[in-house]
Amino acid sequence: MALYICKCGRQVNKSTSADNTGNQDTSECVGCPYLLPWGPDKYVEGQGFRKEVQGYECRMSPTISYTTSYRGQVNDKCTLHILSLDLDFLDTVQAWIYDHAADTLTAGFSRGSMRGTDFSNKGRYSLSISCAQNKKGMAAKAALIEQFFTGGRVRKDMTLAQEKAHILAAIQRGKKQAQRKDQPMKKQNDRCPLQQECERTCQVIGHERDYDYYVNNRYSTGGIPDQDEILTEEELRQEQEREEKYLADLSLAPAEPTVYRNDYGTLFAVREHNGAPALMCKPLASDAWTLSGVLAAVQGEAYTAEDLQEVLDEYAKAHGWKKAKSESAVPPTPAAPASPADTGAAEQSLSAAGPASLAAEDTNIPTFDFSALGALADQAAEADEQFNLHYGRAQDEFLVACIYMARIHALTAKAGRYGGGTWTSWYQSKGISEGSARTMVQNGDGFKSATVAELKNLPALTKKDISLIARQGAAEQVLEAAGQGDSARVQEIMTQLKAAQSDKAAAERKATQCEEMKDSALETARQAQEDAANAESRARAAERERDEARKERDGAREALQASKMRGDRLKAENDDLKARPIEVPAVDEDEIDRRVEARLQQERDDSLAEQREIAARNAQDAILLLGRQINTSWQMVRPFLAEMEESRRVEAIDRINREWAQTQKEIMQCL
Questions:
Q1: Please, which contacts does 643-652 make with residues 24 or more away whose CB atoms are closer than 8 Å?
Q2: What is the pTM of this model?
Q3: What are the tens digits of pLDDT across the range 404-417?
Q4: Nearest CA-CA partner of 264 in 331, 364, 382, 414
Q5: pLDDT band at 252 (very low <50, low <70, confident <90, very high)
Q6: Which of 152, 491, 533, 671 measures 20 to 30 Å from 559, CA to CA?
Q7: How far apart are CA 218 and CA 204, in angstroms?
Q8: CA triplet 612, 617, 620: central angle to 5 degrees?
Q9: Is residue 149 within 8 Å of residue 80, measured between CB atoms?
Q10: Crossing angle for the helix pair 434-447 and 395-415, nearest 10 degrees?
Q11: H or E element: which one contains 121?
């Protein structure tokens, strides 16, 4: 007996040594998301093989792991395997593939198609993700790993303890929901109030169903409401009227949008951007609004001002943001007038720019908590204070903000693993997306040796130009030209950089095309080699068959000729004996004929025995050849059977069995 463990921690002794096994004693497990149906597969006309469900079982394993990890490499074209018990996480991965890499990554996770053999690694589900066999496929696989996993091959968003608690809570929640299904319904209308939502999420359209139907067909991550939340027909009508009135009010496009402020002082609102409404944000100390990377991730299909405002309202409510009546409710701090000393500040370094005071700012705004950085917390807080003063202002101030952002990035990295998540939390608190933060850090690293005066001498370069300069490592040349007041020289450097970037992009595109052509050519050559090898193998087999047939034909011909020669010789001898006078008294001609006939019969018997021996050897060779062919054919078929769908694999095995049964029948007839 061996001890096996279920997903919920239940332990059962079973007489098996398999890496996972089914336990059909599930009377207390109804509602568990890991229950799988069991029963025989039967063929249904017009539908193929279908499982005749006779019950549900838990899949148990000798050991259980609640850690989500992956197997595979980033820099190859092989399949990636994600091992997890968190079905919500696997849903998220599948959705990310659909949204970002549908043309390069292939995965097939579905809660309704899970099989017992999928839970084969310490009880965890193994999701296989294959990538396109080119650089684009490898890049998509690397992006997926970067999105969800750390360098230690574990997921980013949860610790081991949190993940275990989340999985166990999902099991308990499923069981409680299953128990509530037996309670009386608190509704009067025949139409289930969940139908509209289920029709949207599950495409269950065109049927009036009861509450249980839509609960069973709704995504488990959606959150099923309690019985007390089911509305009566009158309550549902009133709710619809309030919603219609609310949407009608939004369509009036209010002159002054609702502005929200998070705990770190960043403002969020729906504002006009390039002639269209957009979700935008700005730090409290800034004058400029920028597109919000935080809200872009939840924007979905919302593009009108009304839809965007609804997205902002819901997100603000979920995260506890405070509402301000208008943008002017929290005015930015005016910039201090320039002092005469600023004129001679050409040698003033950024580190000596002087600590800026936030006394003029809203004293209710909490400072960011850098305590996770330990001894580096004070340096990070000082850089954060300077960042708030400069971010979102003029072009030269933007560069200063980039430099302080790069300084905070370096400090969090120095603390290890980006300060335990401090880096991500910090730039998100400013309303900055991950891509924008990465670009600003790159800009800051490119210009971090510059002084304030040098930056203010730069001509009006766009943020795109600044990023280009930082990527090309030409900040020193640009600063030198700007320091000499040579704006034309700066523009010439910019032109050269843009031309170089354009050439680089063209070269990369050409290299990508060449790589794809190379991959295609290699695939074609590989296929040609396989075809040639198969043709050569078939030719060798045909040649062997011809040789065997030729040997058999030659052997039969030689035996026939030998028999004919012996018969002719005996006949000649017989004729000679008959023609030769024998001087013996009383010759018995009948005895002579009898002896001759006996000798001829002996010769015929010897010839027949020789022919039978030759036929037996030929049959033995043919049987050996047949055995090799059967074994070779089976070795070719067996790996393909393992990759076939279960229904098609059963059909193929049935066909093989029928052919073999017919062959056995014919063999038995030969006995």
A1: 646/41, 646/49, 647/41, 647/48, 647/49, 650/41, 650/49, 651/49
A2: 0.33
A3: 889 999 999 888 87
A4: 364
A5: very low
A6: 671
A7: 9
A8: 125
A9: no
A10: 100
A11: strand 119-121
